[in-house]
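Aim 2 progress update. The chain analyzed this quarter is reproduced below.
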Amino acid sequence: MPFYYCPQCGSKLQPGFRFCPSCGEKLPCSALLELPESPHTEGSAEPDPDPDPDPVLKLSSQVQAQSITDSSGDPSSSSSISSSALIRSSIKSPLRYAVRKSCPRLSTPPKPAAIKDQNVVRSPRKRKVSLETKEEEVQTTALCQSPQTPPSGKVKRTKRASAMEPVQEGLELCDQSGKKWTLGKLLSQTDMELMYEVKQAGVRSSSNDMKHIMRLGAKDGQLFNEQNVLQRAAKPAAVEKWMKTHRLNFLGIPSSVGFGLHETYRFLIFPDMGCTLQSVLDTPTASLSEREVLKLALRLLDALEYIHENEYAHADIHAGNVYIRTEGDSQNNLHDPNQSGFKAAHSTETALLAVTEKLHAARSAKLSSVLILLHLSAAFDTVNHKTLLSTLRSLGICGTAWEWFASYLDGRSYQVFLSGFGHTFRFCPGGNHVEYREGGRTPHQGNLNFISVDSHKGAGPSRRSDLQSLGFCLLFWLTNTLPWSSITQPGSAISAQKERYMNDIPELMKHCFKKKKVSGALQSYLSQVMSLYYTEKPNYLELKLGLNEALKQFGGSLNEPLAFR
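Predicted structure tokens:
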């Protein structure tokens, strides 16, 4: 029985096949496979008197001889010969395809990968066949190309996830309620998210209260999960009710004022939440004392308790998801008509213009001018206010100027928001806590330094997971180190270190504090949360009482702003 070869992968074929059983490609020039068979049919037991080790060459010679015989004495013999050459060239030597094939045979062992170097040394037989078919291959590439195969040299590549591309500033986006928002400057950009300053189109704002931020991400990415969580568990009415029943003057749960879609992006709009804690810690001179870390811990515990009571675990607590906003200046109505700072439509440029104009006016009136420049660099919110006022008085600033500073600083406070609900997990749907099951989620999701061991193992995060993550954050914010913070290996190595130190809290504290005095309040907190069971409900009141008692010993309270050293 004669065999033929697939022009795509070189596998043996039988007459009548329209598709290759090895690579699945449709066979080109299928009519050629139905040429008259040799006198010995498939059922004949008589052997071929002249066996040919290369059936394709045999078939090619038969076709060529047949075409030449038919064209003798015919005026159109040249065209017949040309057609014969094209048909003959469509069946190529299996020796050539043994080198160039792209799909493995099913009936034979795999052969070495293709060698594309044109200078490779070949055997005489291979060189001869290659030379005979080289010119014919060029002529018939287009003729024998399968419609399902991409053109030679063009290989289909898997599409990679494109990075977030900034949107043009000044563009107007419409949310689900029909409100239009105008994009301002780009505040931050990551691989997963863009953040813009926005304002509602057609609405004039005269204070920072009207400033909003817009976060853009992939349409079906983490913002989609965050939108669902905020709509279900963070409605303003529910937050207000919680604050009243728990007698809180503030709860750091952000409230989305709008959401929608823009091309391939999903966006959420929030009131201005200030800057991230990470951006503050990234400044070279910024650091947190134990007193300030305790303030952050108490504010974040309030937010986590609310989220947990609504059946969700945050699952990605770190400084990049903690926002800090200053309150006080606009509420106290302390904006001077001539000031440029902290006012909409004013900037350093307007301040310089105003000062220059006043100096020219004084010079024209032959008056002397004294200009005092104070480089406070946000000292209002990073230095203890009593210390700042006493320092200003010692420098000779007194009277009305000193009273203005004192009035400005009065009532100023920090608001701490917990944001970034992209990895949030509903651990207690309908009041039924999920069972612990490793591998139920993608392992190592979130910031590897701070996620819980549950998240490392792919188990659904629970209440204990968030409290353990918060403990890692507090320890890092205070000491700027963790035993696994320098590990560059995969998440499993970090998880192993966390498991080791979770069972030995004193050793963990010793490693982070080194020769410094260990925080007793933080050690007590870590000991409590590391011993929680997966489904156990934490005693939030007891945790907060211990931290609040330590804060009082430092002479601090939640009513005063944070102070960065």
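The CA atoms of residues 444 and 490 lie 9 Å apart. The longest strand covers residues 180-189. These observations will guide the mutagenesis experiments scheduled for the next reporting period.
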